Amino acid sequence: MPVSLYGLWSAKMFFGFVIFPTDFDKIVSPISVAHFSQYKLMNLLLERLEKLGFSVCSPSETEGSIWNRKILMGHECISIHPTNEGLKVGTSYLKEGEMEEREFHCSILVGSDGARSTVRKLVDIDMKGERNLQTLVSVHFLSKDLGQYLLHERPGMLFFIFNPDAIGVLVAHDLDQGEFVLQVEQLMLNIPYYSPQQKIEDFSFKDMFNLIQVCEQIILKLVGWKLVDVQVLDIKPWVMHAEVAEKYVSHNNRVILVGDAAHRFPPAGGFGKYF
Ligand SMILES: Cc1cc2nc3c(=O)[nH]c(=O)nc-3n(C[C@H](O)[C@H](O)[C@H](O)COP(=O)(O)OP(=O)(O)OC[C@H]3O[C@@H](n4cnc5c(N)ncnc54)[C@H](O)[C@@H]3O)c2cc1C
Fold it and tell me: Which intervals hold domain FAD-binding (predicted)?
């Protein structure tokens, strides 16, 4: 991966560790780099599947034969039972405002349902490792002002920022559109907020307003000057764990855990889905 280290960011003590977002001329590396937000990657993967002959179906389109290269969206796995032939998997889905359930029979079930994996819980596999290493808050925000500045002055994808007032990681999702995620220690919010027991949705309008203002203050401290157009879209807590499932397979090797369902790591080094 092409990496370029920059020294002092600005007189405001904004230090940058910058990875070029694109290297289309392949000067730095024979492989050009791109950064995809998960929701953009998801759309690309679905497009690719459709090109390979799969059809992506919403729950209302899933009547009839389901095995013929169909990707069934919106189905949540709720039960798993072994049968003589394989597995019976119960799912629930929302159809015209009502929750409905349906069962599937299959030989293999791949549990790729993330860190809080229901599949893993249903087959009674525990996680081992270290929990609650750090509690962070991800602030998803827009600012074309910051995007344009970085695009022209310091193009990059990941900015590790250390200054006397604040520490954080700024992830540039789209410099052109000015879309960012800022990760900061929960302590920096400096207001009572007890995740994961307390959810952002539980906040009153006034608390939420305060929280957004606090986030805007942190962005100001980290960036070093007042951005004219910060728009906070979402604020989500994230507790960092380093855990691995006690085993990856169950039910005669018919249930297989992959991805975060099998292991969740601190993100240093980008140890995500494929590691
Ligand atoms: C803040 C943060 C930053 C990160 N940064 C990076 C990075 O820079 N690089 C990197 O490589 N990795 C990064 N990661 C890790 C990366 O996001 C994960 O490793 C990866 O998304 C795991 O993919 P997954 O498919 O296993 O799980 P997920 O992406 O969590 O997907 C699980 C899917 O299963 C669905 N689901 C949940 N329950 C059920 C159910 N019962 N039935 C059916 N479906 C269900 C969910 O809706 C979801 O769509 C980061 C993670 C976090 C939290």
Answer: 71-272
Q: pLDDT tens digits for 51-79? A: 999 998 888 776 666 667 889 899 999 99
136 and 112, same domain (yes or no): no
pLDDT, position 29: 67
Domain that includes residue 49, residue range:
38-129+243-264
ipTM over 0.90: yes
**Count: domains in the chain:** 2
Is 224's C-beta closer than 6 angstroms to any atom of ligand 1?
no
- Probe target for ligand 1 pocket from 39, 260, 271, with the most ligand atoms within 8 Å of CB: 260
User: pLDDT tens across 96-105, in order?
Assistant: 899 999 999 9
Exposure string (b/e) for 20-50, b if CB count within 10 Å is 16 or more? Answer: bbebeeeeeeeeebebeeeeeeeeeeeeeee
Regarding whether 103 and 49 lie in a shared domain, the answer is: yes
266 in ligand 1 pocket by Cβ < 6 Å?
Answer: no
Please list the residues that pair with 240 across neighbouring strands. 134
The verdict on the CB of residue 273 being under 6 Å from ligand 1 is yes
Question: How do residues 162-190 score in pLDDT, each as one tens digit?
Answer: 888 788 888 888 888 899 998 888 766 66
**105 with 42, same domain?**
yes
**Ligand 1 pocket, residue 91 CB under 6 Å:** no
Closest protein CA for atom 17 of ligand 1: 272
Which numbered atom of ligand 1 lies nearest the CA of 115? 30
Supply 251's token pair.
Answer: 């039910």
Q: For residue 214, what is the enclosing H or E element?
A: helix 205-223
CATH number of the structural domain spanning residue 107:
3.50.50.60
Q: What is the pLDDT of residue 203?
A: 64
Instruction: Verify that 59 and 74 share a domain, yes or no.
Output: yes
Check if 169 has its Cβ closer than 6 Å to any atom of ligand 1.
Answer: no
In whole angstroms, what is the distance from residue 263 CA to residue 59 CA? 29
